[in-house]
Design goal:
heterodimer, A: mainly alpha, 2 domains, 4 helices, 83% helix, B: five-stranded antiparallel sheet, 34% strand
Chain lengths: 154, 149
Amino acid sequence: MKQMVKLVIKYILYGISWGCTCFVIMCLSFLIGGGENALMPIVKDFARQSVGAMLVGIACGGTAVIYQFNRPSEFAKVIIHFCVGMGIFYPTAVYLGWIPFYSDRPLYTVFQFLFSCGIFMAIWFCFYMFNRNEAKRINERLRELERDNAVNKG
Amino acid sequence: MRVECNISVDCKEPYAVIHIKEMTQPIAEIISMLEREDNGSLALIAVKERKTYFLEPQNIELVRTEGREIVCYDKCKNRYSLNRPLYELEHILGTEFVRISKSAIINIRQIHHVEAGFNGTMELVMKNGITDYISRSFRKSFKERLGLK
């Protein structure tokens, strides 16, 4: 139990650091792209913006702690991670003005939501590509060990 | 239990005869221990359908927790129950085995392949077809055991 609490705290901190890093990168790109004026709305609302970034970091990165548990099933873990991540990211992004929201343009809102889902999936895809490469290396090593074993037996 | 021990210089090979009414778990463990002492190899006591079996570690592909039970699967995918905790089994089974998660230990020589999961996990497929997941926290040690960085 104590270890589980430690693990959850570790992932929350990991999520906060992810959120803060993304926030700083976003601010930097605003500054480089549009100068100080582009950054002003964020500076004026810094407390809410930074807390929002941390919250999204916890929701998207911190909830990855679920993959460390044996239950539920892997598919259920993906669904929970996705729902919690998107469930917090999208309303926060709309509330803090990261994503413009127009109540009279529902199609635009749907598109924005799908775009956010796309970003989420793109991050997953990057992890998948990294893992696929890792799996390839491991499989090659397994074949090597098998060959060595066969030679030693022969 | 009454125990008789004969020490004699004429005895070339030690052997034991146990007279019992029925096979029980402690007796099975004693037999396993004596066999280990004799030939240096270890047989695990496993139960399947109320029958006790002695399993050689090289025939075991995977040991894991399923619910409250510790079970192992052999090359033919037979499922046996074990009565030792995982940490103890990890120690007993030796270097051919590696822990892949808090709930599973696998025989490194019986891995068929690994597959990348979409969620950042890695699925491991054993030669007998049983699958399990390599947890992120054990991935580093797993790769080290394979000689990968």
